[in-house]
Structures are given as structure tokens and as C-alpha cells.
């Protein structure tokens, strides 16, 4: 687990330029930051020609050490916008140990008026930038920025990407010797695409020699401004004297890139399906979204309010990493929606309702930065929440509530997505290179790629029947806002949750029933929810007049959550179960075996399911993860987290358990 990562500590000179206190160095050249960036990074990597040469479905992936003020990124984006054809895409992956705060970023970027159209878009999305992988989708998906927040030497080894051009930035080697190491350069080489190029503003001899030794062929070239010489180079191959990096295990390796028609069916129009459709559509795929109901978001994703609540671990588990990255991504997507009706960033207060919870919260507060979460004592918690409380708790200032159907609607209404309602897919058949979706004798639709996003219903398909998904019924209660309940200013959670009113109604949730198959709301569960409210705040019970309500008259709705045994979602390509067991049978004798047998993928079949009680946080980023698997792009999550969410994990565990 990373300790708390501080933001950049800056001083500003008399011309408004930022200077790093930690590194005792400038963020960009004294003379002209713009000219230097363009010369050192853009020209030396020949980006103008490379952007201009991209085909309509092409993309270029740039990697950078040291995002800083984002100047290099914005210059690259500006040039991409000028040179690349419509449909081409830019991926920019940058690692940053000390991210600027949003106000500092705004102040620094104000220096470059000509970049304003791009800087404004970046600033609008520069929210919830916390440790680990943070994906920002810009310009309707034409530009993707993946920030890896943390030390380059910790973050880059977790990256799964093929970088076409490296910007080696990161303060002068003499000021930042910990970063400019052979270990870092080996990572740049591991991640380099076959024709990758690289450039840096330094010409320091040992940097050049270490880069050469890592497999880059570096050349000195005339510099600019104060710089007499700089370095540029190309990746020529992994050096023969160094052991090659270990490839991904075959069951987690990337399927062969899809080269055919870019048409996909997504089955199920809840949060998972709508997110998958939007992520694919942003990459130029023509997506048909098949839903058995008359409209989107009629099942688990249909509640009036859901909570953006981060159930984290202080131990940096895969789930906890996924939650921090997923939360950031969802928060940024929500910036496109209407605050107050579609969502609200009112904060979430998790009450320390017993000693054990208080202890857990103290550990979390020590492990995460205060802008993500911090402890509030009881008086401060009351002041925040606007109601009387028996306890203090942990406050997530960027959390809040979401109207999930609004998020689904926004995603499903992106260009290239077509909703096909009243389509209940009962069976999938592969004919030649097409997957066909059938309802009895009726062929509903076909495409080379299908994404199964029907929550636990995906078990009805022979191809995904073995995935261990369970349904857990849950019911929410709708409570009319009263004059006194208007003071509720944040979401408050204990075992249940209650949100500030949306359109005159509070949502109170939620029950858990592991056995019932019936979705008719019951009075008993409304009573249970009122009990959860009592545990949150008896003052709020009074304000809502909830002690006078007749449970038989209460309104609400019930739906099924869909969970996996390890509580992680299931996202990625599907393999043929029987062929998988045969291919990797050796593991049942010795779990350390890695048979050199390619995974028997069900070509074109993908899953996005198992989002449990936190689909608002995990489903949108899972759409990005799925699209990255499918389009052979940089993964938006650490490799280990993507593997922890991989559909093959269960078949693999079954084989190993039998060893
Ligand atoms: C009571 C309750 C409270 C919750 N509270 C929160 C919360 O506060 N915060 C949070 O983040 N999450 C919460 N969740 C969880 C969240 O709602 C889910 O994780 C999320 O909605 C799952 O989205 P999904 O798209 O996977 O599933 P769903 O929304 O269930 O969507 C699946 C869709 O697929 C369709 N479908 C299935 N099979 C087929 C088929 N064969 N053909 C055509 N269509 C098909 C279904 O009709 C459905 O529309 C809650 C869930 C419940 C039940
Ligand atoms: C000169 S600035 C980069 C300028 C930046 N590319 C721009 O366009 O504004 C160097 C950046 O590298 C970051 N950095 C330094 N050491 C690092 C490390 N070990 N890991 C990740 N980032 C690091 C610093 O925090 C700083 O933001």
C-alpha cells in the first residue's frame, strides 16, 4: 500500500512559472516551455508525420515519465488535433509521483493561452485524481489520458501497454537521480512497441549509456535554449545479454487483436452493458445494445439513487485498487451529467457505529490522503450531515449519490450505440466469424463481437454457464422529503444508507436477501430498511416522520445484485471451458506449471458482470477495461487488478485446487 501521496509543493516565480520545492528544479524551461516541449518531445519523436499517417481507426500511444503540469500532453494533443484524421485516437499514459492540485494546475496552464481549449477540457476532468491508475476520457473518447499516480518505479511495472513514443521527462537527472535508473529504462524497454521512439531533454552521458544498454539506440542531437544537446532514439530490441521480461501467463495473455468488422452486440442494458457500449462506441465500434425490457436500466441499475461509496482496504488489495480507480473514473464521467438531478457530489459520511468500524476507519485514514477520505468527530460529522448523529465517522468529500438510469442513458445515447429493446437473448451460436443472438427460432442480431452484460442472467448461455455468479435480492425504500429532512446535506451510511432528496424523495437502502427469487417489494423489508435508518440517525427518523409511516403503504423497488465469490467483477475475454481444462490440465498436478499452450479463446466473446453492490464504481471503468482488452490498448488498471477481474480466474483456481 502506498503511504499518503502529497501533491506537488510549488513556488511561483515573478512570471508565474511553477518551481518544485522537492526537486529544486523548474517544471519547464525558463525561455519558452512550449518551444522546448515541441522541439524535444514532439519533433524528436516525429509526431507530426506519425499523427498525419494514422488511418481512421488508427491510434498512437505516447508514454511519459512526469506528467507535471501536463504541458507535454497538451502540446501533443493540440498537434494530434491538427494532424490526425477523424476516427484516429491518441492514448497518452503518464506517470506522476506528485500530482499538482487542481488550482495549481489551473494556475500553471493559464501561462499558455493558445492551449486553452485543450487545457479547459483537461481541467474539467481533473477531479478525483488519486493514487494508482486514473483514466480520463477526453474529446468524446478521441483522446484518452491514463495517469499513473505514484512513483514511476512502482507504477510502470504494473502497466500493460505498448508505447509508440516515449517522453522521458522528470526533472534533471542530477536533481532526481532516484528516477533516472537502469531499472526505469528496463521498464521503458519492456513497454516499448516494436518501432517505438524516445526523446529526452538531457544529454547526460550515463543516461545515454544506460538507455543504450536497455535496448534503445540513442543519438545526441542539437539542443534548444540552454540545452546544447539533447537525446533522441529508437527501440531496437531487448538486449540479448539481459533476460527477457516474463510474458503474461497464457490464460491471462491478450487474445489476438480483432482485425475484422468493428461491430459488436452488447447484451443487457444496465450499468455494465451501457458502459461497455459507450466505451466501444467511443473507439469507433458500431454497437447494438440488446435489452429484454422496454427500456434501459430496469433491473439493478434502476434505483432512483445509488451511492458512490468506497469500501476500501488499508492493505492495497486488488479490489481496493479497483475501487479507487473506478471511483475516479465514474466521478469524471458524472461531470458530463446534470448535477442535482442526475447525481450530486454532496459527499458520503460512513458512521463509526461501533468500535471495530472505528478502528477500520482509523486505519483507512492513515493509508489514504485526506482529499479522498478523512475522519470527522461527532460534532463535525453532524455539522457536515446537517442532522444529529450518535457517532462521528469517515467522510468521503468527493462521494455522493447518482441516479443510475441517468448514467446509463447518457452512455446509451452516445453516437454509434443503437438500443434494441424487447430483445430477450436465449442462446448464442457461432456461425463462421459471427456470433448470433437467438430468441427461440428468431435470430435477433449478429456480430463478430458480443459482450455479455446481463448480470447473473449470463449463466443461461452455454458459453458462460460455469461462471460462479450469484443473485442477492435487495430492496430500497422511497421516503418523501419533509421540511425538516431538507437539512440532510450528505449521504449518510451505517449498515444501510440514506441520501439527500432527489426530486423530493430520499432513497433509503438496502436490504440483503440471499434466498428470495421474488422481486415484489415487501413490507417486512421496508421495516428492515427503517431499522437501518434508525441506526443511522434517530433525529433523521423524526425529521422524516418515519416512525409514523405504515410499512404496508411504503413505496420502493427490489432487484438482484450479482456477485462473484471474491466480490470482484468479471471483465474480459471468455475461453472455452472444456478446451481450457484440457490445455492446462498439467496445473491440476503441479500448480506452478505454465504450459506453453495458447488459451482457447471463444473468439469475440467477452463478459462484463459481477458488479455486486458497487456497480456505480466498478461498471464504467470495466467498460474501459473491456474495450482495452478488445482493442489491444493500454489497460486502464494495473495488470494484477485486470487479472484479478479476469473471467479465467475461476477455471484456473478450479484446476489448481484439484492439484
Ligand atoms: C437494492 C440495491 C441497491 C444498490 N445500491 C447500490 C449503491 O448504492 N451503489 C452502487 O454502486 N451500487 C448499488 N447497487 C448495485 C448496482 O445496482 C449494480 O452493481 C449494478 O446495477 C449492476 O449493473 P449490471 O448492468 O451488471 O446489472 P443490471 O442493472 O441488472 O442489468 C442487466 C441487464 O441485462 C438485461 N438482460 C439480462 N439478460 C438478458 C438477456 N439474455 N437478453 C437481454 N437482456 C438481458 C436485464 O434486463 C438488465 O437490464 C445496488 C443494487 C441493489 C439491488
Ligand atoms: C519537469 S516536470 C515534468 C513536466 C511535464 N512533463 C509537463 O509537461 O509539465 C517533472 C515531473 O516528474 C515528476 N517526477 C519526478 N520523479 C518522479 C518519479 N520517480 N516518479 C513519477 N514522477 C516523478 C515530478 O513530480 C514532476 O511533476
DSSP strand (E) fraction? 25-35%
Number of discrete domains = 3
Give the termini separation.
32 Å
Across the major sheet, the strand order is 6-7-5-4-8-9-11-10
Given the C-alpha coordinates, what overall shape results? globular
Structural class: alpha/beta
What is the CATH architecture annotation of the largest domain? Answer: 3-Layer(aba) Sandwich
* Major sheet attributes: 8 strands, mixed
Reported by name, the CATH topology of the largest domain is Rossmann fold
Rounded mean pLDDT is 96
User: Class of the largest domain, according to the CATH hierarchy?
Assistant: Alpha Beta
Radius of gyration: 26 Å
| Number of DSSP strand runs | 31
Name the hetero compounds present.
flavin-adenine dinucleotide, S-adenosylmethionine
CATH superfamily of the largest domain: Vaccinia Virus protein VP39
Q: Give the % helix.
A: 25-40%
Number of helices: 19
List segments where confidence is low: pLDDT < 50 over at least 5 consecutive residues: none
